[in-house]
Design brief:
The complex is a heterodimer of chains A (95) and B (416).
Chain A (H helix, E strand, L loop, with lengths): L1 E4 L3 E4 L4 E5 L13 H10 L7 E7 L7 E7 L5 E6 H7 L5
Antiparallel strand pairs in A: 1-2, 3-4, 4-5, 5-6
Chain B lengths: L4 H9 L17 E7 L3 H12 L6 E4 L15 E2 L9 H12 L1 H5 L10 E5 L2 H16 L5 E3 L1 H7 L14 E5 L3 E2 L2 H14 L3 E3 L4 E7 L2 E7 L2 E10 L5 H6 L7 E13 L7 E4 L4 E5 L4 E12 L7 H14 L8 E12 L5 E4 L5 E5 L5 H18 L13 H4 L16
Parallel strand pairs in B: 1-2, 1-11, 2-8, 4-13, 11-18
Antiparallel strand pairs in B: 3-7, 4-6, 5-6, 9-10, 10-11, 12-15, 12-16, 13-14, 14-15, 17-18
Helix pairs in contact in B: 2-7, 2-10, 3-10
Classes of the chains: A alpha+beta (95), B alpha/beta (416).
Chain lengths: 95, 416
């Protein structure tokens, strides 16, 4: 698979390590009323869709940036690549 | 028809014209006591034990494709019970005992061959870890032997003992482990279930569950609605997709694991051998091909094929361990979809929906578990309580902190 890095252009997926579902960007608040339930769902439960999947890849052997890759889990086709920091900021996080 | 040496000779003399289809192809009825979703190894084993051991009647297995079309037909056929943790080892040892008597039990040739599994270690620390695992296995009733290099040289003189980076320091041997004919296992269970009146319904895609007030009353299928008192789902690889229809999110990611076969070679490899410094396991099939595999590709996927870097990595591991296979040609490679769970261990449990039961999360160790998985799932479905060797496989174990993390890597499915 070739991941089209937003800054570096097309890079072999071998340069990256895979973390998993991009929902891991949304860490629950530790002081929430139901923090234990929220952290359980955040840590352990996954949508695991067949089709379009947003996921976190780390460019370990490159510029060490985190990417949000939208990839089809049925065909391995990569539909979209964004910097994870851009995604997080767009959703109102400070970094 | 019961199979025996006599029936084989009789049919040979009659030109093999007397063999009958081994199972029926029934139309689904409108109602069953128990429906098993998924006609793979685990689903068929569940139906078989439900009918044979638990006296259940009116059982159906619903299969989207053909029987045994999932991972039971795509694995590397290894049978073993060399686990360490309390939640796991008694279960896998129970499975091993069922394997040892399986062919007599279902009167079908599964080509069960107890040729042993040898896990090699390459550092002193790894040998200590193997000794600990071996002791845990012995304590829980399995067999294990720690071998020295001299003993390993006698068994496998072809290994790369004095590699500069990964010298072999010993090995953990389980002699009762081995291999079985994967399709034969599915067919044996299917035949045994069919003989006891189970309807094996193929080309019947489950498209939804009938759930009223938190109670599962049946399933919607491509061949109409079928009512049932209890529904058991055993569709590892697609568990996420199927349970989503019941509104459930699971502690599971789907990943692809590749496997490989070389061209046929003369008999050289005595049993199953695993490389402890990388991830590579190999056995030799009765046809002579080396059957081997390694790591999963490591990203979520439902495509039954992987990518080339993993093929390269697996072959490198193989050649590091046994340089003699360097000139053997790789004949075929394929991929199967694994339910990779959050702690590397499976689930056999009720769900929060009454009447809906789940068997899932087998990671890439589902084949060896087939008999015990079927037996314990049948126990749960029939008696509504877990079998005593499967009490740890609960869906809520992450909430209660009772995880079964054999490898100790945490909630990262692609590392298990």
């Amino acid at each position: 698979m070739i991941i089209n890095h937003p800054l570096l252009g097309p890079r072999d997926a071998q340069e990256f390590t895979y973390l998993g579902d991009a929902s891991m960007i949304h860490r629950p608040h530790w002081q929430a009323e139901d923090a234990i339930d929220q952290f359980h769902d955040y840590t352990y439960l996954r949508d695991n869709p067949a089709g379009s999947h947003r996921e976190l890849w780390f460019h370990e052997q490159g510029d060490r940036s985190w990417l949000v890759v939208t990839r089809n889990t049925l065909t391995h086709e990569i539909e979209k690549v964004e910097l994870a920091s851009d995604v997080a900021k767009a959703e109102g996080r400070s970094r | 028809m019961r199979y025996s040496g006599f029936s084989v000779i009789r049919e040979a003399l009659r030109g093999n014209k007397g063999w009958k289809p081994v199972w029926r192809d029934p139309e689904p009825q409108s109602e069953y006591d128990i429906i098993i979703v998924g006609g793979g190894g685990h689903g068929l084993a569940t139906a078989y034990y439900l009918a044979k051991e638990f006296g259940e009647k009116k059982i159906a297995v619903l299969e989207k494709g053909w029987l045994g079309s999932g991972n039971i037909g795509r694995n590397t056929t290894i049978v073993r019970s060399n686990y360490m943790l309390e939640g796991n080892e008694p279960f896998y040892e129970f499975s091993m005992k069922l394997w040892e008597n399986l062919e007599q039990d279902f009167n079908y040739n599964a080509m069960m061959s107890q040729r042993g599994i040898l896990n090699l270690c390459h550092t002193d620390g790894q040998r200590d870890a193997f000794r600990r695992r071996g002791n845990a296995m012995l304590l829980m009733g399995a067999d294990a032997e720690l071998l020295t290099n001299e003993q390993i040289r006698e068994m496998c003189p072809f290994l790369n003992f004095d590699d500069a980076r990964f010298p072999i320091k010993g090995g953990l041997l389980q002699r009762r482990a081995g291999t079985a004919r994967h399709d034969g296992v599915a067919w044996g269970y299917a035949r045994g279930a069919d003989m006891r009146g189970v309807d094996l319904v193929q080309n019947c895609d489950v498209t939804g569950f009938v759930i009223e007030n938190g109670v599962c009353k049946g399933v919607e299928t491509s061949r109409g609605t079928i009512n049932a008192k209890k529904v058991g789902v055993a569709v590892a690889g697609s568990s996420g997709r199927v349970m989503e229809k019941a509104g459930m999110r699971l502690p599971i990611e789907s990943h692809v694991l590749q496997a490989f076969v070389s061209e046929g070679l003369k008999p050289t490899i005595p049993g199953v051998i695993t490389f402890g410094a990388g991830h590579f396991y190999v056995s030799q099939s009765d046809k002579g091909g080396l059957v081997f595999g390694g790591d999963i590709d490591g990203y979520n996927t439902y495509a039954q094929r992987g990518n080339l870097p993993v093929i390269e990595d697996v072959c490198e591991g193989g050649i590091a361990l046994m340089p003699m296979i360097g000139r053997a040609k790789l004949l075929r490679s394929w991929g199967g979809i694994m339910d990779m769970s959050m702690d590397g261990s499976p689930f056999i449990d009720k769900t929060h929906i009454e009447g809906l039961y789940l068997n899932a999360g087998w990671c890439y160790g589902g084949f060896k578990a087939t008999p015990a998985s079927g037996y314990c799932f049948a126990h749960l479905l029939s008696k509504d309580e877990p079998h005593k060797v499967a009490t740890a496989y609960r869906l809520d174990r992450f909430k209660t902190g009772h995880i079964i993390d054999e490898k100790g890597v945490g909630a990262q499915p692609n590392l298990h």
